[in-house]
Write a structure and sequence with these properties.
The chain is mainly beta. It has one helix and 24 strands. It has a domain at 181-316.
Length: 316
């Protein structure tokens, strides 16, 4: 093989490897391992509203609300990449607590040490929980994905290394991940979502929405309410159905694209390397890189600022 062919082959393999790694990062995994039957199952009857606490190390968590007064907890175990059942392992290195106390249900899997997270053991425990809709939750895993759907109450959701998928939630939601993407759909209430290294997508949601990422884009589609969105390294797209008090959009390294209903009254403060919009019935200052004033007599405030991109405001 010639030196030129060898060089081109290395470039191709490098591009292929980069593509595969990117694909793994952008496609959220299922929040529980695919297998035919759980390692363990427990069922409880509960009076709502209730409280669900789920903790695990290295595994995934999925919670689904439904029209029932039953809580069903399914525990799944994987070891060295394979699904296992009780006859395959006794989990002697784990403390497992799946129990009920009044209105509270717990599903906790705790390893005797943290060494398993660094190669000492390759066992992970995941939980799939079916609950009544009127259920608050506290969900936490150190290395897996979390899905929560169909719940009403206060939801506290955190993972150190996985994606978050939230749908059909009502109430107060605090969702955090250190290294994954966040997908939000049909959420109503007070939402705070933060990721240190992923994208955030919010669809068909309303309320007080605060979303922040340190290294990805933010996409808001068909949202309404009060919005505060910021990213340090990506663009922001905001399709706004209606605005309550204010909308604040900030990025250090991308473009901001905003779409609002036509004929709406707004206070505008837009700033970027370039501001693109067509304004009618506007009073204030319009420059190449800044717009500051009142549209249609004024109304809720839209503030959009980018240090390294453009701001575009369009009407629908």
């Amino acid at each position: 093989m010639t030196a030129r062919k060898s060089f081109l082959t290395k470039i191709f393999l490098g591009i292929l490897l980069s593509f595969l790694l990117t694909l793994l990062l952008i496609i959220p995994g299922k929040a529980y391992p695919a297998q035919s039957e759980p390692y363990r199952t427990e069922s409880f009857t509960i009076n709502t509203p209730g409280q669900l606490d789920v903790r695990t190390s290295g595994g995934h968590i999925e919670v689904k609300g439904s029209s029932t007064n039953k809580v069903r907890v399914e525990m799944y175990v994987r070891k060295n990449g394979h699904n296992i059942l009780p006859e395959d392992s006794d989990l002697k290195d784990w403390d497992i607590d799946i129990s009920q106390s009044g209105h509270q249900v717990k599903a906790i899997a705790k390893h005797h040490s943290n060494w398993h997270l660094f190669g000492g053991s390759h066992t992970s425990i995941s939980f799939v929980v079916y609950t009544p809709r009127e259920m608050s939750s506290d969900l936490k895993t150190s290395g897996g994905h979390i899905e929560a759907q169909g719940l009403s109450g206060n939801q506290k959701i955190a993972t150190s290394g996985g994606h978050l998928k939230l749908a059909e939630l009502k109430g107060t939601i605090d969702a955090r991940t250190s290294g994954g993407h966040i997908s939000i759909n049909d959420v109503q209430g007070n939402l705070k979502a933060h990721t240190s290294g992923g994208h955030i997508d919010v669809q068909n949601s309303e309320g007080d929405l605060t979303v922040r990422t340190s290294g990805g884009h933010i996409r808001l589609a068909d949202v309404s309410g009060t919005v505060n969105a910021s990213t340090s390294g990506g663009g922001i797209t905001a399709d706004l159905r209606s605005i309550n008090k204010s909308v604040k959009l900030r990025t250090s390294g991308g473009n901001i694209n905003i779409s609002v209903p036509a004929d709406i009254g707004l206070n505008l403060r837009l700033k970027g390397s370039y501001v693109s919009t067509k304004l009618q019935n506007f009073s204030g200052e319009v420059d190449r890189d800044e717009v500051d004033g009142k549209l249609n007599g004024g109304g809720p405030q839209i503030t959009a600022r980018t240090s390294g991109g453009t701001v575009e405001l369009s009407f629908k």
